[in-house]
């Protein structure tokens, strides 16, 4: 038993609201790991168009999502194309409207607002209608509560909530988190994952380490 094919678009028969994103997204600036899924009653097929906003190839930023992530309906990833220059008195983007307003615009005032790639680790759960801002890094095993607005990096195995999102709880103690990150079960071959599901979805770190 090797589990479902990660390239299948709709892995649950008769339940097409859930889709493995690797088989649904082909944008060159989006990278998605095996078994990561999006759940939407309107279907997951338009994830890139509906959920990844202001993502323009000429900017060069990427959305990188790890393996085994669960993304709920209405989650939004705001990319660097949404940023405005903030070094002057006005943040209004006069230059994009042309007709002379582009003259004298210094592109450096905008490019310095670019905050890099947005990165989700493995086994991350993003709650309904959560918003992830540009350049945020979310660690392995983290949980983002519904309707949260994530403005800063999230540590591995943290639970964050609110606007702006803050750590409300760590899922495990520091020692257990270090051991989980060392085990990195998400990188195991799929047949090994299948054989050790009880250890992965259990709460006995020694049993998980024994499977390594």
Helix and strand element order: EEEHEEEEHEEEEEEEEHHHH
Overall morphology: globular
- The total count of helices amounts to 6
Number of domains in the coordinates? 2
Gist of the model:
With 212 residues, this protein is of the alpha/beta class. It has helices at 47-51, 107-111, 174-183, 190-195, 197-201, 205-211; strands at 18-20, 30-32, 37-39, 52-53, 63-65, 70-71, 76-78, 118-120, 125-126, 131-132, 137-138, 143-144, 149-150, 158-162, 165-170. The chain has a 7-stranded mixed beta sheet, with no helix packed on it. The protein has a 4-stranded parallel beta sheet with strand order 2-5-8-11, with no helix packed on it.
How would you describe what is shown here?
The structure is a single chain. The chain is an alpha/beta fold. 18% of the residues lie in helices and 20% in strands. A hairpin with a 2-residue loop joins β14 (158-162) and β15 (165-170). The two termini are 19 Å apart. The mean pLDDT is 94.
SSE layout and pairing:
Elements: E1 18-20, E2 30-32, E3 37-39, H1 47-51, E4 52-53, E5 63-65, E6 70-71, E7 76-78, H2 107-111, E8 118-120, E9 125-126, E10 131-132, E11 137-138, E12 143-144, E13 149-150, E14 158-162, E15 165-170, H3 174-183, H4 190-195, H5 197-201, H6 205-211
Parallel strand pairs: 2-5, 3-6, 4-7, 5-8, 6-9, 7-10, 8-11, 9-12, 10-13, 12-14
Antiparallel strand pairs: 1-3, 14-15
GO molecular function: acyltransferase activity
Keywords: Acyltransferase, Antibiotic resistance, Repeat, Transferase
Pfam family, one: Hexapep
């Amino acid at each position: 038993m090797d589990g479902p094919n990660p390239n299948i678009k709709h892995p649950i028969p008769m339940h097409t609201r859930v889709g493995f994103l690797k088989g649904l997204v082909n944008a060159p600036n989006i990278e998605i790991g095996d078994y990561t899924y999006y759940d939407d009653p309107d279907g997951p097929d338009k994830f890139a168009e509906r959920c990844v906003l202001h993502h323009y190839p000429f900017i060069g930023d990427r959305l990188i999502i790890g393996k085994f992530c669960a993304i709920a309906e209405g989650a939004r990833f705001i990319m660097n194309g949404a940023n405005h220059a903030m070094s002057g008195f006005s943040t209004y983007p006069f230059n994009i409207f042309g007709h002379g307003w582009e003259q004298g615009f210094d592109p450096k005032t905008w490019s310095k607002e670019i905050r890099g790639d947005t990165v989700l680790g493995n086994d991350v759960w993003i709650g309904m209608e959560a918003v992830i801002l540009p350049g945020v890094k979310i660690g392995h095993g983290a949980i983002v509560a519904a309707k949260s607005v994530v403005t800063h990096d999230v540590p591995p195995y943290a639970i964050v909530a609110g606007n702006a999102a803050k750590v409300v709880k760590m899922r495990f103690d520091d020692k257990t988190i270090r051991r989980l990150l060392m085990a990195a079960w998400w990188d195991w071959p799929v047949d090994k994952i299948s054989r050790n599901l009880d250890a992965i979805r259990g709460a006995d770190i020694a049993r998980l380490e024994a499977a390594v």
